[in-house]
Each structure stands twice: as structure tokens, then as C-alpha cells.
Protein 1
Amino acid sequence: MAGGNNNGQGTGVGEEKTASPRQSEVNRKLKYISLAILVVQNASLILSIRYVRTLPGDRFFTTSAVVMAEVLKVLTCLLIILFQRKGNLKEFIVLHYNSIVIQYKDTLKLAVPALIYTLQNNLQYVAISNLPAATFQVTYQLKILTTALFSVLMLRKSLSRIQWLSLLLLFAGVAIVQLEQEGKRKETTVTGPSQNYAKGLVAVIVSCLSSGFAGVYFEKILKGSSASVWMRNIQLGIFGTLLGLLGMWWNDGLAIAEKGFLFGYTPMVWGVIFNQAFGGLLVAVVVKYADNILKGFATSFSIIVSTVVSVYLFGFHVDLLFTLGAGLVIGAVYMYSLPKAAAPSPSTATLSSSSHSLADGAGDSETEAFLPKASEKEKGC
């Protein structure tokens, strides 16, 4: 992507062509580094959440973790913008006053996706707490299907035949995995302490639906916007923090008042929160050097990593049905990320969703996942 999106920069610079072999070698190395970072970020968040939620002892409040991640994300974006303004505090304050207060109607548009993303982040904790990490990782790829459907309905995007085929394979793969897990659940009535498979499955499906809708809605907002990705993160994070606090008070208010906001926080929990807060922002930078195929490959490979680690860390059993279902999902993710045979315009070049962030739009690779997440929803600036 780093080599393909700079069509307008090469005009009139003839000497750059002589350095192209070295530059292409640098880009190639950066792509492999990007691949590694994307895989680690996709797999580590899910595995670490599963790990901290299944440990014995005091459990932290997931609603407080969601709020803390939003606060850290906003603070990070503020520091990045301050750095971009070379420490000019007056210019920094004026910029935010104009972008957030003066253009309040534009800011208010982000209340809807912020509400959905806050819900989604909380649902991810519920889902991962009740589902095996590998099962969640496979099932969560349904967000690609929901994002595609909402894009067709809301943005009038067109999908290639290969993409439609990949969506069918994706659905089939997830269905096979769920059938396999249902069979296991009937054989062993106890899946773990305080775990409810049905609750986890509903949570991940609702999360996929909200991910698809919010990502497409957010892309629609950004299409006519000139605001930077960092400013949008701040606007989104302000609403996310306020809505997260409301949800925390509604769900765990009395318990947090008694035990404290940071109850149950361990170094591992802080690691999960930092991964959530900075994961999507990190991908936003990394994806500059990774094309759409590489992102799809990273998502596929992270499923394999999650499955292998789950076998050793959680005693997860991989059988033929799970392997078949996961294989279909991995193949579908890769197929969906393949470029169209004949792209009519740059604006329809990409529709991909990656793990813990909003996927980047066709015109601006820096508009990657605003929530870590995971996940990733497509948007364009």
C-alpha cells in the first residue's frame, strides 16, 4: 500500500526512480513487519482477555476497563496532535475548540457510532469470557459479512463474485464451528466456572452486527469530512468515555462505589487495556505499509495463532469439524481481501474489516480501526 498510494507524489521527481529498488526493499521489509504487528495485535487481545477473565480470584469490572481504554486513547491522540503542532499550545487549543465546539453538529454525528462501539467493546468482554478464544476468533469474522451487507445497503457498494462467494464460505465455516461446539457442549455439560456458551454466542453475534453498522455509518460520515484520523478519534473517544461511564454506573455502579474503579486490576489487566487503547491506533499507523491482502492474511493467520495458543494455554481441543470450519473462514477472509479484477474507481477499491479496529478507507490508509478491537470496520476520509 505504501508503494501503491503515492501516485501523486512522483510527478517531477525523476531521481526517485534510481532509488526505487532500495525503496521497494524497504517497503517489502516494512510489509513483513506490519504483518507481524497485525497478527500479534489481532491474536494477543483476544487471548489476553480470555486469560484474565478465566483466572481465579477477584475479577475486574469490564465496564471500567472499557472506560479506561477510551480515556487512554483520547489522551494519546491529544499528545499526537500536540506533537504535530510542534508544542504550540495556543494553536492546539484553537484547533480543538473549532473542531469540537464550533463545529458541534459535526461532532454530534459521532454520538451514534460511539454508542455502538461502547456497546461492542462491552459485548466483546462478555463473549470472550464465555467462549473459547479460538471459537470467538472464528465466529467474530462474521463482522466481515455484516460490514459487507451494510455497505451494499447504505453505501451502494458493489461486491465482486469472488467476494460474494467468500461471504458464503465465511458463513458456512462459522456455522460448522458452531455445530462442532454445540456437540461438545452436549457431551460436557459444564464448560467452565461462570461460563454460558449461549450468552457468549449472542454477545458475539450482536457485536458483529454493531461492528458492521457502526463501521459503515462512520465511513459515511467521514466521506465528506476533512478532519484528521486523530481528531476523529478524540471526538469519538469523548462520547465513548461519557457513554462508557453511563454504562458503568448502570451495570456496576454500586459495586464500583464499594470496591473502587480499579478493583481487580493486575499488570495483566493493564496489559489488556493498553492493547485495547493503543492496538487500533497502532494499526492505523502500521497499515500505511500493509495492503488489503496483507491485512486479510494477518487476520487469517491470527486465527491459527489463537487456536494453537488456546490448545496449550486453555486445553482447547481441535477436531476435524473445527479444522474444516476454521479453514473455510481463513480461506474466505483471504478471498474477500483479494483486489477486484477491474476496480471502477478508487472509492470502491476496498472493503475489509480487521481485528480490534475500523478498516481503512480506499483513499486514506491512516483511517484504520478507531476501536481496537477489534476490531476493524471500514471507513474512508
Protein 2
Amino acid sequence: MGGGDGQELSTDNVKGIVLALLSSGFIGASFIIKKKGLRRAAVASGIRAGVGGYSYLLEPLWWVGMITMIVGEVANFVAYAFAPAVLVTPLGALSIIVSAVLAHFILNERLHALGVLGCVMCIAGSVVIVIHAPQEKEITSVREIWNMAIQPAFLLYVASVIVVVFVLVFHFSPLHGQSNVLIYTAICSLMGSLSVMSVKALGTSLKLTFEGTNQLVYPETWFFMLVVATCVLTQMNYLNKALDTFNTAIVSPIYYVMFTTLTILASVIMFKDWSGQSLGSITSEICGLIVVLSGTILLHVTKDYERIPQSRSLSS
């Protein structure tokens, strides 16, 4: 199995790929289980999560979906400790296939030929990215990651994300959140890009600790843990709103593409993943990402992926 610039994938990279694939399967299924729970909760309470309801917290099926998602996220968390983000993140495309197919059969959210083609394009683009992905760089201390995180370029990225998220949450969300799928998914994706950088830092710290080099004594480890918790809670809240308001088959791929694009950008800035790679490999990764984006656009323009009418969203 080849890696970037003709290198063989390392053992750590292979572990990261396997964990990422398992993660995508669990996460893709969790979308469907959680949405079934959201529908049941909406029927019971009469208030949907998309308009501020939180009755889903009392719905057992929603918690089954949440546990399924947590299992997937744990696998994903560990994957980032073994492989670079530009290798792990694109494999999330599998979750699109899982959620779209399950939504077709379980939620009666129709997936036609163009939708299938869009999913295939997402997978094909992800495969190209994986083939040309860089090898994981050896890190010996969480302080190395901290020094990467306080680079001016990455600090500028973090500041930009925070400003955009605040504008989306306090201005655009109240006005257009119920009619434009990009609002909620953009908030999830922007916060997700920061959470992945912190997850990778935290995962690497724990990996080094288990290997005998204690990283828990450093305050940087606990700071990254706090960032992960903050970002994940924000993602959960707005992902629930997106799932309750819009069709699963469109939320999943749009969220995936935005999240993947922003995560790769953040990783390239912070970890300098493309440093040392040939222009050919970098170009191939970008082309793979364009194919993924094109597949998502194809899904988006399919008529079956319109916003769910409120009467339908309240049916089980």
C-alpha cells in the first residue's frame, strides 16, 4: 500500500486507517439512530430540537445513537494519535455512505442514482487523498505540539474561526438557521477543525504517556482537553439542530466536506503536513478533495434532498 511520494505506509498509519474506517461505520449509523430518537422526542413533546427543544435528552433511542457516536469518536480519537489528520479525516466519507444508505431504507429519505454517484465521488476523492497522504511525523512531547499551536499562522486561523462562529451563532443562526443547511453545518465544521487539532494533541499525549513518557504533568495537555470538550459540546448542539431540521442525506455529506476541508487546512497550517511532500502529491491531494466537493454538490442539487417539512419531521 503506497503512501505519499511513493513511500510505504507505516504501521502506525495502517492502524490509523483501520481505526478511522471503524469510526466512520459507527458514526454513520449514529446519524440515523439519533434522528429516529429526535423524531420520537418531537412527537412526545411537540417541540423539535431544531427550534430549541431539548426533550430528546429523555429519549432512550437518542442516547443509543449518542453511545454509538461516542464509540466511533473514540476510535477516531485513537486514529489521530497514529496517523496525520490529512490521512484520517478523509476516511469519514464512509460515514456518508452508511448514513445515506440507512436513511434510504430506515427513514424513507430517498437516495436516487445521482445521489449514489455523489457518494461514490466522495469515496473516490478520499481514496486519492489517502494514497498521497504524508507519513506521520514523530512527536516526543506535548510541548512540541504546543509550540506548533502558538505559531502566528495558526493563531490567526483560530482567531478567524472564533470570529466567524460568533457571527454565525448570534446573527445568521436566528435569521436563517431553519432555512439554510450551511449555517448549522458551518458552525459544526469550524469548531470541528479546532477539536481535531486538540484531539490529535491530546491523543498523542496519552499515547506517549502509555509508552512511559508521562505527559499529564504538563498544563498544555489539560488545556487541549478543555478545548476538545468545548468544541465537541458545541458541535453536538448544532449537529442536533441540523439533523432535526434538514434531510440526513444532505446534512451528512455537507458536514463531512466542510469539516474535512477545514480540518485539512488547519492541519496543514499547524502540523505542516505538506512540508517535504512533492508538488505532485500535494496536487493529487487537492484534486482528491475537489472530487469529494463535487460529489457533495451533486448530492445537494438532487431534488430529494430538500428541507424536511415540519409535519414529516414529527413522524416516526
Protein 3
Amino acid sequence: MSSRFACLRTARLAARYPLRRRYATAASDFVRIVEVGPRDGLQNEKQSIPVATKIELVNKLAQTGLKTIEAGSFVSPKWTPQMANSSQILEYLLETPPATPHPITYQWLLPNVKGLDNFLSAWQAKAGGDSGYPTPPPSPGSGATSGTNGSGAGANAHEISIFTAATEAFTQKNTNCSIAESLQRFEPIMARAKEAGLNVRAYISVALGCPYEGPNVDPHKVAELAVSLLEMGADEISVADTTGMGTAPKTAELLKTLSAAGIEKNDLALHFHDTYGQALVNSLVSLEHGIRTFDSAVAGLGGCPFSPGATGNVASEDLVHCFHSLGLKTGVDIEKLSEVGEWISYEIGRSNESRAGKATMAQIRKKAA
């Protein structure tokens, strides 16, 4: 009986004094934020946004402490007209990179070889030299820097991103091909990117729910895709909850499945949309599983033209505020980031979806009053 009472007493104490979760440790207290606002955030906006506004957005974001910014995409303007002037943004960043105290990695999404050709054509025109190829960039998350243009702190880097999806229906709608065909399309892109010294990021869309096949996407299919992309040469996999259907249990199951498939945590980024208000919850679950790279968009910009009903990305301000409250470091100045969120929301005539951003701006105004 005494052992029984001892067990009951232990249970009561555990309930009364729960162990505090520790997200920050000496080895893993830095979280890398990949700002996707200029591309994923703006691509679904209906009104045409001037290229000068897009360039100013990138410039402003570069002053906040962010070290990775997705600046545009080389996709068909027929399908994504908002991204039609990405080559001008690339040319500007090559000619006049923002003056920052640290190097920045700029990412460029492309769907096929033609997109790569367009990217390299713009690159060669401004930074190619004899070969037309840049110096190899650093690995994601590393402190190394490389490239041909940059601020006084070192050279900026540019890398490309490709994308497929975890369901056949979404892949057909998004890229007009099967999953297997999308992987075949990537092979020459990977080969030429490696020859050019470019890192390649690979997105897996609808990993936690599909608008056409429903909310229960098989996590083993996501893991198989991730393994295939890494074996093909991808440097990082961004696992995307494109629809925002993800929940804490489903996120945990997916991450356990990815780990069981042998995929290392430092090869992964998580990309959450906030359609059902679960993005921060899912981010915390991901933190508990050791993920330290997250995609987000300033002011919660975003949506997906091929995912009906999906709302914006998790707001960068909300994510940074949450991580800082846990003792984690991002290197991002929340006040500067909040100012950018308010500015771009006004510029494009939409509401600011970041609660932390709006609260921070209220505090800034209070101090200035």
C-alpha cells in the first residue's frame, strides 16, 4: 500500500509543479527566420504592386536583422502575374544590395528549367563575369558567406527554391504534372544549380492538409518526398502547411515520421499558414521536436492561388515575439519588423494580420507621445 500512496503523491506533485519546458539551450537557442513576405506574401494580392514598392519592402526587411529573405519567383506571369518583375528585383539587389551589418541570403522560387534559365540570364547580365556563375553560397544556417555582391560585412548569397506537393491532386493543379514528373523536372535543375554553385531549397506543399484530397495527408508520403529531394541534392526541405489545416497532433506525427525516415532536423524548415489560428501552436510543437528554421511573412501576408480559402502565412512579428518570450534568439529587431509590417499593409491597402506587430506599434506610439 505504501508504494501505491507514494505513486499517488508523486502524481499529485507532478500535477501541482509541472516541469517547465525548456526550448532554449546553449547549443540550440538560435532560431532562423526565413522571411517569405516579398514572394509568398505578395503573390496572391489581386492589385498590381509596383516593383519599386517590392524593392523597398526587401530593403526595409534587410534592416531588421533578418538573414534570409525570399525576394521573388521566376514563374510564368500568366499564372502568377504579381511576380512578373522578379528579374528587376534580382538585378537591383545585384547592383545595389542593401547596406546591412551582416550578409543576407536571397531566395528565388522557380518551377522548371525555363525558370532557372530566366534566373541565370538575369544573374549573368549583372554578376556573371566570364562564366556567368556565382561563387558557391554558404550552407543554410551556416555563418559562412559568399557571392559577388554584398555589404561591408561580407558578400550576400543567392539561392533557388523548387516546389512540389504531398498529394497528386495539388501537384496537378499547381504544376500540371504528377509528383513523379515533378521530381524528374527537378533533376536538370539540381544538376545545373550545383554546377553554378547555387544552394537549392525544396518546398513540399500541403504536407498537413490538401484542399482537394482533404486534411489527412499521409506523413509517410511527405517523408518519402523529402528523402528523394535530399538524395537528389536539395540543401534544405521546407515542409509547408499550405492550407493551414495542420494541428498539434498531426504536426508531431509528421515530425516523428520524418525523423524515423532518417531526415536530420537541420535539413528541415517548417512553413505554417494561419488559416485556423494554429500556426504558433504548430511552431511550438516543432520547436519541441528540435526544428530551428521557420518560414513566416511580415504582417501575416500571403495566401495560395492554388489553395482556395487558405489565409496568410504566420506573421513574422508574432513568431519572433513568441520565440523571444521563450528565451530564444532570432537576431531580429521586433520594433523594426513591426514598422515594416505596418508600412507594407498600408502600401497595399490591406489589414495588418500580426497581433504582436500591432501591439508593438501601439507601444512605440505610446513612448513617443
